[in-house]
Amino acid sequence: MNTAWNELQTAFVNDHIAMTHGYRDLLEAVQSGDFESASRLASDLDKVAGPHIEFEETCLYPEVEESRGETYTARLYDEHAEILRAVVELQSLSDDAKPTKRRVKQWQEQLQHGLDHAAACGSLLSHLGTQSADQQQSLLNTLLLLRQQGRRWSELHPSLKDRD
Question: Per its UniProt record, what Pfam families does this chain match (predicted)?
Fold first, then answer.
């Protein structure tokens, strides 16, 4: 059995678990109106998700695009951007923020979409299962290096930070 493949699967799944917990906790804070916690949790999620999102967008999605097409993967990138917008907005909230009910509902929808995306995207790892053992080792090394570099998700798409 290919150890690199097993380790890559484990690392990928562990990332998805951490992001799912982050989305869930952030969604709960938004639903309860605890925007001080929501801001902190959004910052935590931005940090936790960054290396994994970078791996997906630079390593996984190009492989997915070969089999599922550009339209499918464009939707995946768009989903990331939509979810990130909510994360960026939430982490910039002041402690005494009083967002409108409409905005809170939008954040809830975006974060629920993040939960759904994390669940669905986990199955896309199978696209890397056909790679050679050496390629899988290289992919694992890339994911581990991205984790070590620790770029925030918002750093991958700085234009979203500058939006109003």
Answer: Hemerythrin (PF01814)
Domain count, the chain: 1
With contact defined as beta carbons under 8 Å apart, do 39 and 91 qualify?
A: yes
State the residue for tokens 């990331």. Answer: 80
CA distance 62 to 103: 33
Q: Which domain holds residue 65?
A: 3-161
The structure tokens 């930070």 sit at: 161
Q: How far is CA 89 from CA 13, 70, 85, in A?
A: 27, 29, 6
Q: Mean pLDDT, to the nearest integer, of 70-98?
A: 92
Confidence band, pLDDT 50/70/90 cuts, at residue 161: low
What is the C-alpha separation between 43 and 51, in angstroms, rounded?
A: 14
Alpha carbons 45 and 148: distance in angstroms, whole number: 16
Rounded-to-integer distance, Cα 132 and Cα 22, Å: 33
Q: What is the pTM of this model?
A: 0.91
Identify which has the larger pLDDT, 157 or 70. Answer: 70
The distance in angstroms from the start CA to the end CA of the chain is 50
